[in-house]
Give the backbone structure.
Amino acid sequence: MSNTSRRTTVTKVMFFFLKKLLFSSCGYIIPESPVLTLGSNFTALCILNESCLDFGNIRANQIIWKIKNSVVPKEQYRVINRTVSSVTFSDTSTLATPLTCNVLADGQIEQNIYGIAVTLGLPPEKPENLSCIVHQMSKTKFIMTCTWNPGRDTFLATDFRLKSQWPLETLPDCEPRGVNNSCDIFNVQFFVNLEVWVEAKNALGKAESEHIDFDPVDIVKPLPPHNLAVNSRELPTVLKLSWENQITVVVMELKFNIRYRISDSSDWMEVPPEDTASHRTSFTVQSLKPYTKYVFSLRCMKKNGLGYWSDWSEEKSGVTSEAKPSKGPPLWRKIGISHSPNSWTVHLIWKELDRSEANGIILKYEVTVRPRPPLSCPPEKYSVNSTNLTLNLTNGTYDVTVTAHNRIGGSPPSVLLIPASNSKASVKDIKAFPKDGKLWIEWTAPDNSVVKYVIEWCMVSDSSDCSTEWQQELGTSQGTFLKGDIKPFKCYLITVHPLYTNGQGNGQSTKAYLQQGMPAKGPTVQTKKVGKAEAVLVWKPLSVDEQNGFIRYYTILYRTVSGNETAVNVDPSKTEYTLSPLSSDTLYMVKMEAHTDEGGTSGPVFTFTTQKFGKGEIEAIVVPVCLAFLLSILLGVLFCFNKRDLIKKHIWPNVPDPSKSNIAQWSPQTPTKHNFSSKAQMYPEGSFTDVSVVEIEADDKKSFSEQDLKPFNLLKKEKNTSEGHSSGIGGSSCMSSPRQSVSDSDESESAQNTSSTVQYSTVVLNGYRDQIPSVQIFSRSESTQPLLDSEEKPEDNPGGGENATPRQQYFKQNSSQDETNTDGSHFERAKQVTPPVNEEDLVGLAQLQMSGHSSQLCGSGPERNKTESALADALSPSTEGQILRLETMGINTATVDEIPKSYMPQTVRQGGYMPQ
Amino acid sequence: MKFIPAGVVPLLLMIHCRLVVGRALTVNPSSSMCENTHVCKPNVAEQTRKLVVLLNATAQDLFSIYLDCQGDPFSSHLDELCNANGTNFPDFHVNRTSHKDIMVALYKVFAFLNASLGNITRDQEELNPMAKELLERLHNTTKTTRGLISNLTCLLCTDYKVSQVNVTYGKSSKGMNVFKKKQQGCQVLRRYVQVVSQAAQVLLPHLSQA
């Protein structure tokens, strides 16, 4: 053995041991990495190496089988011999990978001997429903797509292949890309029968579909014809289509479907298939409507019906040629108001023809108006471009015809008879209601035959006029839908006119809604009258625009604050309702609902309070009270009347009228004295009465002579014979009066007897408050009733201080012309000319006047000025005129100073007049 | 096999073709022509006619495109350079009346054409690899020809009981220069246009009666 061979042998031995050391284990499992069918049974063997038997003293009965980490029950083990153990699984679905073979070394230590990976899955099912279609992609390019049902999931990598072959040649397989149920074959060859099937294969087996045999040209879905063109011909009812087929006739002959529709319609019509069952590139579509735009589309498929229809081609449209209008325009009239009683204003109106009837563009309308006998006018013709014509016609019956003309010719005439009066029968039982989303109107036809009906309608609204629309219906119809824009919730007034060959019937009307809704608002209720137990409610009916439907009834809802609500239904024709019975003096809340068929809507709440007393209750109380009061008044008046003398005596005693006093008769010097006054000369006699002051002091009687007292005696005597005229100044007589003024004899007498002082007033000619006395009268300038009292009741003034102090009396001769024209009393004049002066001022004025007069009587100038100043202060709001009057008063005073005073004895205080 | 020189296989193929060209291929009765042949479907005759018509419809375009792709002088001196007599394209006599003879003649023509189209396609893929339309048409015509041969074989074997047909193939263009390759292709295709037109005319009435 050479060195080389020896070296080789050593190398081999070393390799053997190294291999044994590195790669050998104590055993292995067969089968190695099996692919198992789910649900099948499976047996694995673990075979121990002999070496392990020697070194480890391991036997097959020590083998433990595990699935993942789970120990397989030992019932499934079987020790075949000393080195082989098997495990059996009756159902591989319980298997999991890895399956390991282990042993318990040294009693308890588990050591892995070997493990295998188990793959579970299913064999492929037979592909089903294999079918193929050839799609045309371009004029020369076709793709055949075959699809099939691959069957259940195998859980394994499964290879599907589409196999094909000609009769004598097998073609390359088609391998699906990314899918397992279809495959595309390019470069399809027609006119050779092709056998196709699908083969599915995986680790557990393979399956093959049924073979299908076909000529690919029989399963083509061609491209649709393109470059479609539509051309009109002279005939108005035909259009010619032409197109290009995208598949050559040598490949296949085609048949076609041609569909078409009117451009504004969505409903397709189709040319009979038998007319297009042959290969072609054009077709003439007939029986079309004149002057109508049509849209066309077509598709194709193999002539013998094998294969598939192409998609529909692009749509192309064309318009047919014009033709004469097929019918006259619907014609109607409106009779207007004419200024002349012997003529009408007739508005002829007609509708534009539908496009399908116009058959072209209407260029004009020709209207002929032909009067019927007895009118003898010749027919008149009009040519108009609009759809209405207004004519003034003499009263009578007319035949009106209208024809529409387009470029080709005129339509048949539309005829309308306009009778002198609508004397024919009307329709009956007219009803209108919604139907199928539209408004349906129906009626019962009259007994006579009707040529046609005209239905007029308009939308009733408060905000706009009733704009009338109309339509015609055949004389045989008894109902129709309104053709127009009928809106919901709007009230329509619909009128049906029957037209006869020789006249018209009156129109019959009804109202209807296409759709009713709840009213837009409820009525606003308020009270017209509120009583104790009832209230009269009034409301304004809803306007038509607010109703949204027919108001079926109103509901009045009322309640007290805490009470239950009460509802009362009211007829919709009423606008007033009386609520009763109600509780008196109670707050009620009332509202009102308007109801249509669809529901009701409430109006605002109105509150009112019933009255506490009913009608007549107050009168029943007040009237008796008043009557009783009046009765008592009446009785009192009667009593007073009966006792008037007694009352007069106590309340209104007679005051002797100084003007009637006879004392004037015994004052002979008066006229001369009066004439002595320059002012008296300015006035005629009788305009003024002389002023005299008579003051009789009882204590001074002695100072008078008998002659001086004689007139008093006379007066006393005459008083007794006086007729009782009283001036209100009791007890004294006045001078120079042409009339006697005698006080009540008793009183006067007593006054003469008891009073120590007798006052006489200034006698002025002018009357009280502009009343001009008929005769010269006397008045006492400052005399007030207290003076009378003092006269009449001297006992009220006990002869104390007042009697001790001579009363400041004077009689002023009123010579001022102003005063002549106004009041005789300064006091009253001041009152009148200074209305803003308050009563206190007036009182002050009176006092000032009195003091002023006193000053005048005293003849003290400064005193007088002071008095005037005080008087002006008291009359601060007064005007200049007032001050002037005051000055006049001063002048008068001065005059008085100059005038010889009364010769009657006077008792004056310091500054007063002394008796003359 | 790894150790076989790279030029051996083409050499063997070339030798084989050279042996084939120039003499009729004898069809062994037990050869593969009628092997695996099953009953022909009734539509095969019609399919055959349509295939001939289809080839006739596309032949002229194929030839025109071929000429365009070859450039001058073929397009300008067509008659001189593309004389059809320069090939041994099988004749097709239009005066035949026998269906069987027509089928046999068609088989010879299209068997020759199929082999020639193989050469032409291979040459054009080399000479005009960018002429997509030409190549596509050559592929389509080749496949149609193969389909036609399949149908003819079926008809001959089953309907006409012909199990052997002597066919000829043209010269292999292997080793020819570019001009010769183009010229041979031009001659074959020009003759193909003429023959397939005659076949289509002849075949139409006969097959319509069949």
User: Anything to note?
Assistant: The longest strand of chain A covers residues 293-302. The radius of gyration of chain A is 71 Å.
